[in-house]
């Protein structure tokens, strides 16, 4: 029996999940996990980093009704191994941010759950996933990108997204009502004036799956949820879904740029958010990056100075893509040997990945040519209105302020809305 931080006395091991790191995929969650798993009060469900329990990487249906008894037993097992009821147990599946039904899953599991999201510059994230899927022959999107250049893939995928969203727009509630009125009254209504983009920008997040989301918004959200490489960088849609279900105080947004520049600062923010005391991290450990390009495994370690950063900024300025990232600390794993949480969907796991600590060939290269520069410019235009919604939520105090460089890149109104 012990006194928990919330002041309740209990000796229960059958408590629900305390926190979830939702993703986004390719945003540095492996590095954050490797750092934080040394903290004595922080634990995670499953043997390795991700359970992929409610959503796999791509093109599979979500599994929001996946078996809970096994999941809860695994959490209980983690608490038993740690031998302390108050250890915080979290799920680190970077696929859950894009899982449309997952906010409800987590809310039903634990309405007080704490949610963490790591966001990376959207074009960089898309490039990173594209490059990874090119070389991982078991990757969920490998076949999709195998014979594509980045530029040809962007062209194809943006067309597909546009087509998908056009279809979805027919199903927005407003148009449904108008259609119904026209049908029943036999009169043609003047076209209603759509809300201005300024009005849309100032709106708080409101569309939540299973609650306030109408069919049209659901279909539009599926368009990006089904597009793992390009669509999963449309952060506002996924974040809105979570913010519609949870008070913003329960959602902590972090940024890869900050993790790169000030890893200890980001870790302290996570500790404060989870309400655990500060852990000990060494500068040496904090200078290690995991799961970077050519070193694809959640536990594959490289020193920061050896990482070839993918920077979309490289396409518009000089070809120096080492970035302006600086360093800073972590310690050893305290994970022990947890029982594996078996995934029933055959998604990527460390078992399927190359041996950790064995960087693979670094031969992938992104030519800084015209087509790639154009593809990056088109992607920025595509993401711009979505990024502006993030800025607006940051201005409303709902999420942490994004990096200044994102504002200068995406704040201007050039390019306009895409849907
Ligand atoms: N600290 C820090 N700063 C900047 N960037 C970082 C950092 N840590 C990881 N990374 C980059 O994030 C990419 C891996 O992300 P994830 O670990 O979330 O990938 S995964 O979703 O688990 O597959 C991977 O990107 P690419 O190198 O472009 O593949 C990592 O290099």
From TrEMBL:
Feature: compositional bias, Polar residues: 358-371
Swiss-Prot/TrEMBL keywords: Glycoprotein, Signal, Transferase
Principal EC category: transferase
Annotated stretches, region: Disordered: 315-371, 395-419
InterPro entries: NST/OST (IPR037359), P-loop_NTPase (IPR027417), Sulfotransferase_dom (IPR000863)
Keyword Transferase in annotation: yes
Gene3D superfamilies, alphabetized: P-loop containing nucleotide triphosphate hydrolases
Domain Sulfotransferase: 19-277
Compositional bias ranges of the Low complexity kind: 315-337
Listed SUPFAM superfamilies: P-loop containing nucleoside triphosphate hydrolases
Record has Cell cycle as a keyword: no
Listed EC numbers: 2.8.2.-
Family indicated by similarity: Belongs to the sulfotransferase 1 family.
UniProt-recorded name of the protein: Sulfotransferase
Lineage of origin: Eukaryota, Viridiplantae, Chlorophyta, core chlorophytes, Chlorophyceae
């Amino acid at each position: 029996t012990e006194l928990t931080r919330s002041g309740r006395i209990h000796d229960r091991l059958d408590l629900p999940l305390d926190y979830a790191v939702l993703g986004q995929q390719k945003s540095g969650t492996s590095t954050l996990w490797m750092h934080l798993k040394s903290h004595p009060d922080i634990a995670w469900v499953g043997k390795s980093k991700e359970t992929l329990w409610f959503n796999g990487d791509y093109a599979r249906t979500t599994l929001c009704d996946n078996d809970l008894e096994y999941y809860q037993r695994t959490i209980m097992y983690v608490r038993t191994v740690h031998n302390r009821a108050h250890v915080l147990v979290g799920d680190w599946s970077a696929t859950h941010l894009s899982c449309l039904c997952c906010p409800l899953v987590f809310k039903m599991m634990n309405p007080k759950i704490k949610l963490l999201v790591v966001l990376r510059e959207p074009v960089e994230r898309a490039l990173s996933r594209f490059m990874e899927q090119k070389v991982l022959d078991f990757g969920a999107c490998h076949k999709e990108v195998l014979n594509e250049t980045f530029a040809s893939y962007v062209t194809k995928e943006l067309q597909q997204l546009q087509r998908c969203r056009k279809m979805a727009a027919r199903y927005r509630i407003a148009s449904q009502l108008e259609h119904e009125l026209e049908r029943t009254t036999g009169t043609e209504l003047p076209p209603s004036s759509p809300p201005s983009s300024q009005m849309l920008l100032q709106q708080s997040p409101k569309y939540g799956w299973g609650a306030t989301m109408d069919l049209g918004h659901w279909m539009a959200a599926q368009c990006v949820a089904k597009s793992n490489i390009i669509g999963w960088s449309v952060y506002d849609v996924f974040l809105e879904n979570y913010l519609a279900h949870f008070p913003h105080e329960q959602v902590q947004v972090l940024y890869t740029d900050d993790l790169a520049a000030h890893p200890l600062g980001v870790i302290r923010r996570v500790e404060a958010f989870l309400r655990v005391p500060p852990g000990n991290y060494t500068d040496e450990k904090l200078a290690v990056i995991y799961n970077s390009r050519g070193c694809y495994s959640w536990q594959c370690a490289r020193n920061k100075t050896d990482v070839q950063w993918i920077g979309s900024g490289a396409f518009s300025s000089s070809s120096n893509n080492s970035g302006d990232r600086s360093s800073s600390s972590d310690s050893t794993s305290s994970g022990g040997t947890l029982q594996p949480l078996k995934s029933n969907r055959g998604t990527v796991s460390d078992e399927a990945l190359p041996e950790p600590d064995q960087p693979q060939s670094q031969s992938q290269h992104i030519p800084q040519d015209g087509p790639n520069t154009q593809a990056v410019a088109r992607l920025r235009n595509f993401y711009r209105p979505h990024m502006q919604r993030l800025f607006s939520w940051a201005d409303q105090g709902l999420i942490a302020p994004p990096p200044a460089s994102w504002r200068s890149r995406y704040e201007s109104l050039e390019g306009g809305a895409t849907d």
